[in-house]
Amino acid sequence: MTDLKNKVAIITGASSGIGEATAHLLAEKGVKVVLAARRVEKLEALKNDIEKNGGTAEIVVTDVSHKVAVQHLADHTIDKFGKIDFLINNAGLMPLSFVKNLHIDEWEKMIDVNIKGVMYAVAAVLPNMRKNKYGHIINISSVAGKKVMPGSAVYSATKFAVRAFTEGLRMELSPQENIRATSIEPGAVATELTNTITDDEIQQFVDKLKEMEMLTSEDIARAILYAVEQPQHVNIGELLIMPKEQG
Hints:
This protein is an alpha/beta fold. The chain contains 7 helices and 7 strands.
């Protein structure tokens, strides 16, 4: 297994949910975590918790839909720690809606965050990873990146894109550059994602999800840890993680 002590990880969407849980778990393993999100108060609280437990954390307030902000995130990480070993591309939105209801502003936000934000972060960290001939890019896709359902058309489109992009990264970078790429594909997770849903017609789907035992953020954090801890000759291309009750 790879020794994670003193590795450096950027985690986007770190202020809650999967990003927050992953930050805690990686910091416990000795990874220096750079916490990126828009909500500074939550980032500060997370940083304090990590440092109280002996970990190392840095905050960079970042909106991943802005290319300049994401480049600043990478530059700051290199200035502070000298390298970027892991990118956990976790920031995302899930305002599910039926296409006929034309929530076009929400479609655009999902494309900006879920696709462009992922690509901006990869573009920002890649030069340092290539220079060091080392790195691991973890992109958070979804079961919705494999399976479309009514109400998920646009969200699924963004997560299909993330999964395809990640596979392309793996094929291009892993053999020659020693940079691994993994798509993590959660099913239903108890996070804040459903809070962005404004389409009343989709609420029945959300209520049904809450009837089953959903995954926790810690479940997904452990999957991320599993991927990054693998020996260097091993690339976990994708991990699909589902609640046992989810169809």
